[in-house]
Amino acid sequence: TMAWSESVDTLLANKEGLAAFRAFLKSEFSEENVEFWLACEDFKKTKSSAKIAAKAQKIYSDFIRDDAPKEINIDYHTKTDISQNISEPTLSCFDDAQRLIHSLMAKDSFPRFLRSEAYKELVKKQQDGNQKRWLPFL
């Protein structure tokens, strides 16, 4: 739990850390950021060109297009670029938007998560657990 505080990447790479961060973002009504980031990570691993087009459309309709149900907050230029290229998507078509969202999470959501009661509780729980393990006579 303490290691999660090293960086947003450390947190995102850890299953429990990711779950805790998602729950925190959900409480702040901004879980679309981590969901978009995860969708992009999955998208970049896609091998079949038919699946690339289908996944790209899904990401676009879920997160990018105007009035998308989980619309992410990206600048007009990035949004326009994606909209113009979505008909022939590449594995890197969401890279700029993903970088922006990663940066937003790293600079904004992540520090708030580390200051949150939810994170402090998880750290305390782990520390209590560690004490019991190392001091069985207590």
From TrEMBL:
<protein>
    <submittedName>
        <fullName>RGS21 protein</fullName>
    </submittedName>
</protein>
<dbReference type="InterPro" id="IPR044926">
    <property type="entry name" value="RGS_subdomain_2"/>
</dbReference>
<feature type="domain" description="RGS">
    <location>
        <begin position="7"/>
        <end position="123"/>
    </location>
</feature>
<dbReference type="Pfam" id="PF00615">
    <property type="entry name" value="RGS"/>
</dbReference>
<dbReference type="InterPro" id="IPR024066">
    <property type="entry name" value="RGS_subdom1/3"/>
</dbReference>
<dbReference type="InterPro" id="IPR036305">
    <property type="entry name" value="RGS_sf"/>
</dbReference>
<dbReference type="InterPro" id="IPR016137">
    <property type="entry name" value="RGS"/>
</dbReference>
